[in-house]
Amino acid sequence: MLNKTLAGLAKGLQQGEFSSVELAQAYLQRIKNEDSKYNSFITVTEELALQQAAAADASRAAGNAGIMTGLPIAHKDIFCTQGVRTSAGSKMLDNFISPYDATVIRKFNAAGSVTLGKTNMDEFAMGSSNESSFYGPSRNPWNTQHVPGGSSGGSAAAIAAGLAPAATGTDTGGSIRQPAAFCNLTGLKPTYGRVSRYGMIAYASSLDQGGPMAQTAEDAAMMLNVMAGMDPLDSTSVDRAVPDYTSNLNAPLAGLKIGLPKEFFSASLNPDIAALVHAAVKEYEALGATVKEVSLPNTALSVPAYYIVAPAEASSNLSRFDGVRYGYRCKDPTDLEDMYKRTRGEGFGTEVKRRIMVGTYALSEGFYDAYYKKAQQIRRLIQQDFVRVLSEVDVIMGPTTPTPAFRLGEKTSDPVEMYMEDIFTLSLNLAGLPGMSIPCGMSNGLPVGLQVIGNYFAEEKLLNVAHKFQQATDWHTLKPAGL
Ligand code: GLN
Question: What is the best residue among 203, 208, 401, 422 to mutate for testing ligand 1's pocket, by most ligand atoms within 8 Å of CB?
């Protein structure tokens, strides 16, 4: 019963091969037995899962089951979950029991899915390796000496280890796509505004976007059907019809125009990754696509621009954690200022403090024009590059990451080296565009991801492009040894 895709599990439930309760129990048992190796969950919601599973079985018996009814999902611990600790990977929120559900959680619950637990993540989603988590790093099931990627590393590790069939993630600068690439998964970062951010703990509000992480494009489409849509509680969510993302998966790709940005294939790209991405593009040509070289000339500027804009927004968003209203408060403060200082000094980790300092500096009088305003101008140039290229091609393809999963500790001493890992993913968030990572091969036993970028609200096209590739190849079906 385990090791199936969401679509496979949905079929098993429909045909009565197993019940939702049996399915939830099997996953909970596997988490208990195996997760000490991966540290992929911060909280396992056993009681909630069994209660939801029993309700799912009851609604199936009453003839009310939908496609998601009884399907187990793990949620990144950034989505507020009523009655459950929601930590964002931080000591600051270690004691925070959310009094309400994020819209994404509410929608999965309404669709009848079963919450297995809350997954590990970089603190406040700041990181590319899951190593900034207060709960310790999560580990890559393909090689536990390596990182699973970040910030949605726990979601990726849980799926790759078979501890959850699918999971939610969030992507501010690559946090769905990069861990998907590192763990051989299919991850989709939707267009900014496609998925509600309500109840998703804010990192950088103009960049943050929730999305699915799954074993296949078909599963990601099933999840996006649940997640997408306008939400009156999120003023940046977009009022636009939600198609059935599963209905166009098999559309033929004849005539698909693919652009390959020359800046994505520079000398710093790992040669195995370059070769595998080119092989994947060949596969698309065999499926009827045409390919041309394009240029995104401001690609190199995405790292410096992002690492001003994101910390600037973070410094503002994280000012709410002051020990007054909720979350961590230092012991025995002598006065208000002492409480602020020690609460934030003790509650935040190193990377979060670094971002708050950079962001506060960039927004301060006298530096604002030189840093924040400049970064916003570069952001516009990056967006214009994409708009121009996407008027000539249907999708842009390239690597998701410059290297496969690196070793734990390999990049922690040099933040800039860690930030360079995001070179191919950040620009989409700056532009608000959707993108996917899909498995396209292996390098020394570690997975490699192909990134597919589409125009605004082209999620349906991206899922179609990913699904056709998965019909023609079986990279996405590979599992870590022993699983
Ligand atoms: N690695 C990037 C950062 O640290 C992106 C993280 C994310 O997408 N949440 O900011």
Answer: 422
Concatenated DSSP letters for 130-181? STT-TT----BTTBTTB---SSSHHHHHHHHTTS-S-EEEE-SSSTTHHHHH
Q: What is the pLDDT of residues 99-153, one digit of tens each?
A: 999 999 999 999 999 999 999 999 999 999 999 999 999 999 999 999 999 999 9
Q: Is 422 in the pocket of ligand 1 (CB under 6 A)?
A: yes
Which pLDDT value is given to residue 267? 79
19 three-state secondary structure = coil
Atom of ligand 1 at shortest range from CA of 307: 10
Question: E strands along 405-475, which residues?
Answer: 435-443, 446-453
Q: Is 130 left (phi over 0), alpha (psi -120 to 50) or beta?
A: left
From 19, 20, 76, 427, active-site residue: 76
Residue of 175, 237, 315, 437 with catalytic role = 175
- For 428-450, what is each residue's pLDDT tens digit? 999 999 999 999 999 999 999 99
Alpha-carbon distance values, 365 to 52, 288, 311, 373 (Å)? 51, 54, 16, 12
Cα–Cα distance list, 416 to 105, 129, 185, 222, 399 (Å): 34, 13, 26, 37, 20
Q: Does 169 sit in the ligand 1 pocket, CB within 6 Å? A: no
Please give the distance of CA 30 from its chain centroid, rounded to a whole number: 23
The encoded tokens of residue 49 equal 């899962």
Q: How far is the CA of 150 from the centre of ligand 1 (A)?
A: 7
* Whole-number pLDDT of residue 140: 98
| CA–CA gap between residue 190 and residue 172 (Å, rounded) | 11
- 131 C-beta closer than 6 A to ligand 1: no
Among 149, 151, 154, which Cα is nearest to 181's? 149
Ligand 1: distance of its center to the CA of 62 in Å? 44
Q: Is the CB of 151 under 6 A from ligand 1?
A: yes
178 close to ligand 1 (CB < 6 Angstrom): no
Neighbours of 18 (CB within 10 A): 15
